[in-house]
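Note to self: the last two entries modelled the partners one at a time, which told us nothing about the interface. This time every component goes in together.
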Amino acid sequence: MKMFKPFIIASSALLGSTIISSAQATPAPAPAPAPAPAAQTLAPAISTEDQVKASIYKSIVKIEVATQTADYKTPWNSGRFAGGTGTGFLIGKNRFLTNAHVVSNNKRVFITMHGSARKHKARVLHIAHDCDLAILEIDDFTPFEGLKHLEIGRIPQLESEVRVIGYPVGGDRISVTRGVVSRIDFNTYAHSRADQHLVVQIDAAINPGNSGGPVLQNGKVVGVAFQGLTSADNTGYMIPTPVVNRFLKDIEDGQYDHYMSLGISEFPMFNPAMRKVYNLSEDDPGVLVARVIAETPAAKALKEGDLLTAIDGYDVDSSGSVMIEGARVDMNEIVERKFAGDKVELSFARDGEKQTATVELTHFTAAQLQTVQYGKRPRYTIQGGLVFQPLTLNLFIAQRLDSPRIRRLIARYVSENIFKEREDIVILTSVLNDPVNEKLSGFSGNAVESINGIKIKNLQQAHELLNPKELPEFFVIRLDGVSRPLILPGKNINAINQRIQQTYGIGSPSFLTK
Amino acid sequence: MKTISIIALICSFLTQFALAQNELASPPILRVTSTLQGYNIAQPWEKSAPYNRRGLGIVVGKNQILTTAEMVADATFIQLETTDGEKSMTAVTVAIDYEANLALLAAKSGEDTAFITDMQPIKIHDHAKLNDKVTIFQVEDNGMPLITTGVIRGADVISSFVDGHFFLTFEIKASMQSASNSFTIPVLKDGKLLGLLTSYDSKDQLVDCIAPEIVNAFLKDALDGDYNGFPSLGVDTASTNDEAFRAWLKLSDELGGIYINKVLRNSAAQRAGIKVADVLLKVGDHAITRRGYYTSEHYGQLYWSHLISGSNTIGQMITLTLLRDGKKLKQEVKLARKEEGIIPSHTYAKAPRYLIKGGIIFQELTLSYMKLFGDKWRSRAPIGFLDALNNPQDYEKGRKRLVFLSRTIPTDATLGYESIRTSIITKVNGKEIADIPALIKAFETPGIDGIHTIELDDNINKIYLDAKLSDKVDATFLQQGLPSLSREKE
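The predicted structure of the combined assembly is written out below.
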């Protein structure tokens, strides 16, 4: 049997999305019929504890997913078809909890009960890529009626023992491993590559296929197994219950509203000269507001250079931490625990004057440039063989964009409010070679600044400028940081486009729907 | 090993016999040994460890020895020695051009120069032709010449020692072996000097050799006692071989021409009023092709820049023919030396300027600093630096150099700033910072509260330093052996 290495992303690894090959191809051996017990007295007594364990197994399901993953290098193509398995568990009537990455980009999802061969067609009801959790439901819940709904518990103690149950690679049936809680920390969630939340590290063997499975202690769920580390052995990570509970509460109203963000970046207030400028004595609280991002909750109250002293009455110390329930945590934790529409009270000092403001929290969408997108068809438009795509993290990775100008745009997109003017950063990603553009291939990988003198704000606008009702003599395309303009002739461009579409097998010259 | 060197010896004898008719019995070659020591770019207050380089020089006039700049750049000591090792003396650099990779040496005053003056200076060719046969001179440990013959395969305008400065260079096909003095090997033809070898590619067996046109121009400039260097137009160009682009530029088919992409600040081109989007059609009487070449007398197609830097001197007037908005115009240009810009391409013979304030190290950005980020520095160096290098026009306002905070040594004065590094400085105490001297001056007047305000292009855009506390911290650096807190003069 082939063993699967974890699917590697950054330094962490996702455990669910292994491609099924040999595991699926080899039919599982039919269970041998259990021999009839010779005598009642010889049969081992089944304790209630074992019965409890066995009843839990039925509530832990195998999830089989067929996926279609967009290829950002050839956005006009259908993408890559693949599949994978993961684990999920029943937490309520027709509510199965699993990882978002198990069911991302899915075309079809099946759920199988422990000890049964029947595949139940499932649907993703809610998916939260930022905390890697999803809820599935199935068409016909009847076979699962009466099964135990797993109860969500608390954060386990360090060094306490936990069990990981799931359907990892190496066999078809349910697998149980044991481990010890070895660390509780904030860490990156590899699925989105950008979000950091609380993570619990355990030393149980967690393998591809375990993803989305419950981590249990005293019969209660203390976490959801979700990622590993490729550079270290025996390190598994689980999503702890505060993150799970926050997700479940968020979707109570029927939709997922994401994590809220305040919209500032802070700078520690340690330096004596800095403290003197802000007239602070040694014990005074407060962290410096280094940047305020436009169109965020913070922008309604704060300015760069303000001293943020308290959030919701919790004193913010000079490093930007607050004390909650006896533990020192990052002040953003207060916002992390809140939901869309919740309010937060900010106490701050501006020019030495104390002020207080209450702002309503919202989700910040521009930050999505910095997170991996799932389940979306890539947008693009092609004119004269020049392929234009909006910049996303997916595109950045797929095209290995390394122009310093683009890396600088990404780094400053949010912090310098570039997103206000450029909803999309439109990139000339590739040149489909044709006599009309034969000298232009060296220009791919740059951002489009203007077309025919008009600054480019988004892909839709670029598309309209490239496809006007009346064709201009020339299309003059200027790229960021490139002096020489790219010129396409307007004459015969439609015929040229048809030729290029045919040569390169492109069904549609554009896809613009967000 | 021994057999091989004997065979080599015999071969060289044979070759020499074969060439005896045409070659001088012994060209006036000297061994050059230099001790080189540059500054430690990461810690600009100190020099790096010294190292030796061994190569050759050739006598081109009375007490005039030609070698490459690479041999003697940042030299602390230069020794000249006869090939047999019998006589030696100390030399000094009279003129050096890092960009063209040439240097002229002379005996240090007081040295006995008799053995050099006894040597018959070698004559230098005016030019060569493609397919000319040449001889490359090396010297074995025992003083015997090691001669390789080669053929000039091509001529190109490329850079040698310093990136971004392009000069006429021959590409010679020759199969060489390494000898004890592998730097700067003279290349001769018919007993006259053709140029100096600057690099050898053993895989393709190709030699790069500085052309005699460049050597002669360098010597002419150097011998008048005041070295000016090679002229440059100061533009960046793009080819016009793209049909749609040509149509947009209104360039008719019979015209060649290259597109002016960039006009450098304070350059000859800028002073003459050349603009971005002009098309350069002719330099003097030479028409420029769509890809930037002209037909040269001796070498076939050559890149246009040789018409400027390889064929003229600074201050000379040349006539350019341009196409602007579809109309032809002639433009007189007074040639000037290439400006180094806000990020110098090299810093040889210059001490890097810096300032340490309370533990914060400020420096001026150079290409050498960027190269500290490794072979892949073009993608690994900080994005802000790369952007400034690629788009200097966005950073030139108010600046002569790009002053940046290179790193922060943890001290009482820099508490909380430890993570700040490689940030471009915009202002200090409200004043714009043109270079390190301006920075030093700006730090002389802290705010009335005794606080320095430093504005930078980073996630945090303003940091503060307590003037008294940083002076106290700086005093401890001096006590601990730092030679100086700043260097104002390069």
